[in-house]
């Protein structure tokens, strides 16, 4: 007979992830008992051993004959001792000497390297070895959580997973309902592994019947992991009806393939052999495709991969918090860099293709990244088709698993079927590299990981890449935008506590500061019952966590244990070696040496999620902060015996978090001694420890302040060091007795703004006029500390002074941020105190006065101001209207931006869209409204207008809803670029231009210089490599043009920015074409543009070997040069390529130089080197 096989079955079996799930029906071909016969044999065994009487035996047989096999198994096992059961299993499986059958050869011939079986015997693994020329499957049993974690990886192969146990380990065998409950509640890793495999792989079930007890046991897991959709699960079963096929496909996602049994025959299931033979032949006949596009099996594998990521995250039931942060782009040269750009973590994940996520321990970095990964998977899992979009498949990797190859680590995360090289080359992935600070020590200190990541980015530039870290020191070599996660908002914490029925009447800000860390907030919600809120500290919360683990184990298993004391030495060992995970052997030895049964406690701690297998054969603790607390606990023990144990750790920044926790464990006297020792080396770190401590010692605070003042009064203090000390002034000095010592720095260009804030908090009103004077002199950065100080005084008498002074401003552009600062100050007072005076200025005939007045009213949401703004949109002057729409948009308000709109303003905005000068600003305003009615209105207009400029502006408004149409319009007009399109196209593209590199970059050529300039300026703040989209000849043309232009001395301001910043930045994105050429020029001592060349080379991935000794010496000379047009790139390069010896011998002596610029640059370079080696080299 001929069986029909669905094409999807053939595709699934041929995929490398295909997993065969083998039931007991297959083993019966070799003489192994079926479940029914096994229980009959068990009852007979009990009778022969005299363990059960006739009545009990008859009762058991009656239950078996009724078909209640699970109940019968429970009855049998309840009568047996462990020894009896072991003897019975030996007789049934070992003594039978089971041999492979033809059916095993047919199954192995299907080609799968992955198996799951509920059978106890070894027939599958033995057959695999027999029919695969000696190859062996790795046996993974239900009592092996470490091995189970490794087969959860999509790339795992050549294994057989035994969730119901193995005859070689009788204690692991699952036979009864009670055994099943034991797996469900005490061996969670087994359930988790089974669910992962069911989700992530195509499955073919063989040897089961729909009523088999084993199939009944696992069908719940099948149901739990089926969420609908196209699942590649198939089951070959006897005598299946059409109704059964429909039922199982609808409710379990399993396609049933039936064969007919042969009644009254010894070979009742003989047709199964026939079916498997036909299936093998079908697989051989199936021709392989040579198409370079992803095969259908690869697409299905990625679908399952996305399902697994989503399930993995959802199954953790993680508390998610809405996190905000500050985004800064190190490449940005516009005034925007001075503004605090506050964004949600969700927004930056979607906006930036390259990004560093920076956050302190417990800030929610990993959780947020894992959530983001799951959301990409959710979006992609149902839409994977022939047209894969870039960045549509997430890859989430943890740096603690790094073993020397980023490519290998990423590959191991993906299904075997998928061609990693092709998909990486085509930018299919959003790659999330979590916790770079957890990279094993040897890879970080040797800069091996740094070079590996640089090479990876250069080879596969099209992929989206997000990197998280505790400190920028670990990623100082990356030129990416940085998103620094803020702590949880105090109002959010309060609201959550109120919902939990906590009394907040006496809660301090210090307590709220502790709980603003997501990690500690979660600990608080889990473990803070019956504790005085004002006594809660990080130390107490972590200690509570450890106690809860102890109590849980004692309550569930009757085992008394102290996990903190037991594993503290392990934590210390890991921290000292710069590792996160450890070989389980060491943990088991520690457990055994403490008098416990190592496997029992080991598996319990995994089930309690205290220990986490990493999938690479190692194991770690639940969170890095928990590891560090263990380490701190052991360090306290060592410190009590020998205080010098701390000396080498103080200079090793890898110990920073551990030492902070260590100090919190000490009594006040010892803590004070440790901080006094640290402050001599690093005042910033000493303050962090002081601030984290569970108590505030006044004398210690005074020591910190005296050290701060000593450093400020050092005549050779560097600009960089002074800048950092300014932050300490604001945070640590509050006592008025220091006013005299600090007020002399009020006019200092670097720390003056911070001094002003201290003076305001001290309410020294005599200084207010001087602070206002300083604001007008040095307030052209936003937000200014001088402005914050004036707000702190809350004295409305300053209004007249501010408005009088601002009227004296002659030129707006150079004072724009100063005006914004004054606007911020004014908005802290009642409107009637300042709005009338400003409205009078709007009656002026001078455009300058009107623009300043509008800027000063920005952020004011009174109906009077909104009405005035609406009328101003009828002005004839475009500059005034542009400023009005900016103010209505609230563009420069960093927190809770609220766009002001009325129907009248919307109508006037549409009317201005065709304005050649300012239409793009109105387009941006209307787009930010995110109004359906506005979008639809724009959509109707875009299909009818013939005005190109208007069409571009309308395309910008509709881009989120009508993306394809919008991009088509934008690219058409960019291809046929005209100067008048500049502003409109810029508004459309400036936030996401790198998404269209493949379409836009090839438009750069040797002939169209106007279009070239627009594109190059638009890419000047990007960081993605673009060499794949531009040819070498064009790059060389741009470089030669640059060489000629930078020699000219009569460039206007815009040309200076273009030739000295935009072109170098653009060329730096073409490193594949330009790096070797430009390094050769730099190393040529006769090349005339060497210094200017640094503006390009500075952005390349560099190492010391790239430079000759002569060039390095030349770079040292250039460190003394100050340039106003761009940064001292020589300093940056020296810091990037240096090492500890380099810093000690070459740079540290420069800190005593009489040349202030040289001192400052040496300090900056040493800081960069410190970051790369995680070691303190200089006093801070």
TrEMBL record:
Domain of life assignment: Bacteria
Pfam families named among the record's database cross-references: SIR2_2
InterPro entries associated with the record: ARM-type_fold (IPR016024), DHS-like_NAD/FAD-binding_dom (IPR029035), P-loop_NTPase (IPR027417)
Listed SUPFAM superfamilies: ARM repeat, DHS-like NAD/FAD-binding domain, P-loop containing nucleoside triphosphate hydrolases
Protein name listed in UniProt: Uncharacterized protein
């Amino acid at each position: 007979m001929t069986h029909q096989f669905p094409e999807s079955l053939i595709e699934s079996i041929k995929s490398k992830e295909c997993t065969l799930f083998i039931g007991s029906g297959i083993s019966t071909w070799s003489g192994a008992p079926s479940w029914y016969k096994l229980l009959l044999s068990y009852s007979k065994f009990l009778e022969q051993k005299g363990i059960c009487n006739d009545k009990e035996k008859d009762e058991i047989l009656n239950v078996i004959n009724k078909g209640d096999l699970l109940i019968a198994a429970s009855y049998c096992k309840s009568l047996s001792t462990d020894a009896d059961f072991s003897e019975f299993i030996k007789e049934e499986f070992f003594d039978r000497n089971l041999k492979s059958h033809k059916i095993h050869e047919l199954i192995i011939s299907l080609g799968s390297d992955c198996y799951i079986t509920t059978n106890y015997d070894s027939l599958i693994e033995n057959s695999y070895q027999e029919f695969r020329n000696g190859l062996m499957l790795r046996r993974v049993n239900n009592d092996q959580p470490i091995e189970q974690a490794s087969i959860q990886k999509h790339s795992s192969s050549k294994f057989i997973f035994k969730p119901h146990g193995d005859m070689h380990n009788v204690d692991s065998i699952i036979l009864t309902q009670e055994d099943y409950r034991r797996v469900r509640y005490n061996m969670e890793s087994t359930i988790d592994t089974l669910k992962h495999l069911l989700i992530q792989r195509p499955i073919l079930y063989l040897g089961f019947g729909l009523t088999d007890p084993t199939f009944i046991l696992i069908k719940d897991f099948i149901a739990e992991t089926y969420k609908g959709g196209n699942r590649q699960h198939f089951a070959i079963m006897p005598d299946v009806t059409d109704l059964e096929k429909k039922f199982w496909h609808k409710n379990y996602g399993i396609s049933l393939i039936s064969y007919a049994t042969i009644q009254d025959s010894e070979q009742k299931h003989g047709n199964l052999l026939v079916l498997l033979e036909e299936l093998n032949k079908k697989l051989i006949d199936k021709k392989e495709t040579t198409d370079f596009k992803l095969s259908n099996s690869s697409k299905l594998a990625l679908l399952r991969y996305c399902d697994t990521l989503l399930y993995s995250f959802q199954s953790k039931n993680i508390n998610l918090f809405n996190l905000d942060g500050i985004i800064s782009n190190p490449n940005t040269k516009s005034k925007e860099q001075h503004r605090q750009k506050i964004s949600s973590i969700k927004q930056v994940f979607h906006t930036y293709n390259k990004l560093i996520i920076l956050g302190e321990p417990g800030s929610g970095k990993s959780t947020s990244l894992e959530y983001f990964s799951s959301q990409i998977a959710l979006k992609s899992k149902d839409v994977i088709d022939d047209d894969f979009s870039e960045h549509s498949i997430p890859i989430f990797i943890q740096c603690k698993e790094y073993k020397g190859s980023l490519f290998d680590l990423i590959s191991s995360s993906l299904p075997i079927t998928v061609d990693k090289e092709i998909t990486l080359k085509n930018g299919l992935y959003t790659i999330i590299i979590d916790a770079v600070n957890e990279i094993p020590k040897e890879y970080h200190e040797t800069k091996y990981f740094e070079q590996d990541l640089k090479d990876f980015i250069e080879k596969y530039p099209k992929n989206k890449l997000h990197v998280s870290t505790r400190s920028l020191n670990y990623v100082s070599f990356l030129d990416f935008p940085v998103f620094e996660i803020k702590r949880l908002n105090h109002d959010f914490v309060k609201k959550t506590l109120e919902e939990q029925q906590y009394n907040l009447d006496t809660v301090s800000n210090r307590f709220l500061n502790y709980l603003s860390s997501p990690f500690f907030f979660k600990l608080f919600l889990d473990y803070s019952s019956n504790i005085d809120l004002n006594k809660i500290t990080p130390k107490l919360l972590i200690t509570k966590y450890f106690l809860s683990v102890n109590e849980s184990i004692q309550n569930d298993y009757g085992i008394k244990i102290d996990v903190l004391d037991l594993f503290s030495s392990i934590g210390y060992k890991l921290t000292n070696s710069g590792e996160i995970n450890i070989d389980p052997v060491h943990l088991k030895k520690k457990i055994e040496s403490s008098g416990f049964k190592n496997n029992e406690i080991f598996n319990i701690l995994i089930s309690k999620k205290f220990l986490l297998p990493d999938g690479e054969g190692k194991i770690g603790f639940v969170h890095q902060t928990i590891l560090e607390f263990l380490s701190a606990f052991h360090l306290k023990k060592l410190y009590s015996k020998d205080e010098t144990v701390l000396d080498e750790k103080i200079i090793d920044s890898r110990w920073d978090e551990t030492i902070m926790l260590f100090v919190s464990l000490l009594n006040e006297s010892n803590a004070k001694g440790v901080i006094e020792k640290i402050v001599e080396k690093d005042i910033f770190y000493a303050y962090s420890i002081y601030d984290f401590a569970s108590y505030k010692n006044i004398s210690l605070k005074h020591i910190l302040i005296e050290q701060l003042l000593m450093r400020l009064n050092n005549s050779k203090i560097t600009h960089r060091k002074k800048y950092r000390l300014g932050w300490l002034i604001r945070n640590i000095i509050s006592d008025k007795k220091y006013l005299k010592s600090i007020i002399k720095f009020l006019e200092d260009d670097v720390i003056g703004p911070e001094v002003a804030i201290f003076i305001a908090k001290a309410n020294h009103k005599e200084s207010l006029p001087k602070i206002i004077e300083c604001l007008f002199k040095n307030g052209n950065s936003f937000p200014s500390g001088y402005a914050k100080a004036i707000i702190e005084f809350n004295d409305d008498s300053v209004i007249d002074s501010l408005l009088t002074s601002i009227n004296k401003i002659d030129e707006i552009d150079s004072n724009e941020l100063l005006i914004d600062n004054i606007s911020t100050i004014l908005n802290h007072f009642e409107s009637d105190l300042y709005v009338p005076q400003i409205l009078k200025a709007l009656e002026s005939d001078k455009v300058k006065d009107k623009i300043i007045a509008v800027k000063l009213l920005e952020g004011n949401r009174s109906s009077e101001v909104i009405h005035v703004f609406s009328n101003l949109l009828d002005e004839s002057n475009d500059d005034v209207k542009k400023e009005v729409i900016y103010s209505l948009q609230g563009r420069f308000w960093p927190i809770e931006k609220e766009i002001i709109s009325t129907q009248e303003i919307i109508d006037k905005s549409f009317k201005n869209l065709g304005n050649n000068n300012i239409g793009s600003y109105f387009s941006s305003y209307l787009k930010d409204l995110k109004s359906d009615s506005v979008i639809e209105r724009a959509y109707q207009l875009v299909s009818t207008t013939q005005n190109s400029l208007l069409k571009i502006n309308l395309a910008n408004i509709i881009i989120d809803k009508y993306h394809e149409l919008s991009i088509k319009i934008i690219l058409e007009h960019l291809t046929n670029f005209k100067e008048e399109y500049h502003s409109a196209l810029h508004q459309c593209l400036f936030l996401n231009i790198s998404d269209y590199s493949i379409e836009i970059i090839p438009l750069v050529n040797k002939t169209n210089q106007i279009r070239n300039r627009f594109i190059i300026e638009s890419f000047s703040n990007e960081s993605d490599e673009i060499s794949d989209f531009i040819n070498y000849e064009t790059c060389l043309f741009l470089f030669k043009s640059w060489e000629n232009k930078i020699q000219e001395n009569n460039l206007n301001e815009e040309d200076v920015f273009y030739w000295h910043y935009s072109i170098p930045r653009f060329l730096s994105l073409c490193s594949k074409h330009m790096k070797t050429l430009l390094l050769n020029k730099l190393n040529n001592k006769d090349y005339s543009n060497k210094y200017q060349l640094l503006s390009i080379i500075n952005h390349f991935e560099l190492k010391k070997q790239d430079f000759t000794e002569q060039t390095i010496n030349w770079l040292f000379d250039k460190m003394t040069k100050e340039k106003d047009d761009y940064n001292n790139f020589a300093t940056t390069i020296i810091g990037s390529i240096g090492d500890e010896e380099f810093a000690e011998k070459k740079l540290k002596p420069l800190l005593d130089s009489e040349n202030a610029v040289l001192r400052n640059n040496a300090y900056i370079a040493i800081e960069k080197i410190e970051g790369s080696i995680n070691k303190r080299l200089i006093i801070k």
